[in-house]
Amino acid sequence: MKLLYLPFIVIIAIIINSCSPDYSCSNCLVKTDSLPANYPFSSGLCVGSKLSADLINPLKPLIPADNFIASTSDSLPNAVSLDMPTPGDQSIQGSCAAWASIYAAGSYFIHNKYKVSYDSILLSPAYTYNQITKGNCSCTSIYDNLYILYTQGAATLSSMPYDASDCSRQPDSTQRKVAAKYFIDSINTISLTGIDTVKRALYERKAIIFSMHVDDAFKGIIYPPILKNYTGSGGAHALVICGYDNAKNAFKVQNSWSTAWGDKGYLWIDYDCFLKIINCTCNDLGKYGYIIVN
Question: Which of 24, 88, 106, 250 yields a CA-CA distance of 20 to 30 A from 8?
């Protein structure tokens, strides 16, 4: 008689296991061109402002901002992928907010606004990050970096190269002159709690800057890099949503840990996992993102 209960026990065990989060993947294919073993996996996102008084323009105290509203109700395609700059590498510096806001989203905006190649207009994360931190290479907020992009613009990487070992170097007059060419006028905030809303912004060719806590599973993402589980632990990190693919059931996200990480610097976040990230009680970073607009 005891054997009659065995199938039921097996079924119950399978159900329980399928409902439990699995953060391991011992049988997955690991990407071979991975980062070095001692890579720092730096993050560096703050929620509050760190702008010093000299950086606040009294004539422009706040960035003009509206909530994102989709401009069309068209049927969405099955996939969208924005033409982003090649993912960069923040290395040991906690400059993720500058890399996401200035280098990735900022360069993407200027690239589309002026219809110029990335070769000539990649924006420097050092231009905003160094001014905010002033030699104390700690965390910064997405908004603070965008604020400088609004009030001053940002110099190009060719005019102000990034140095992960130095955040004290301030822009000179030549770099400020370059920066004045590349500025933004306003931003949108976008609720990230609805998958369709995020997809519609991407369909309208808008890159979305957002943040999350990055755990060990995120740092050591296996190949193919589709994040499906989330612990809610780890440092606060800024990234850019730059596409989606319904076949993968996931959003495409650009990181700033070089092209050796993930899939050439990108990863995919499963739609269900994305909602867990945004709605997690551990999320002290907010349930919204930023979009640079004309």
Answer: 24
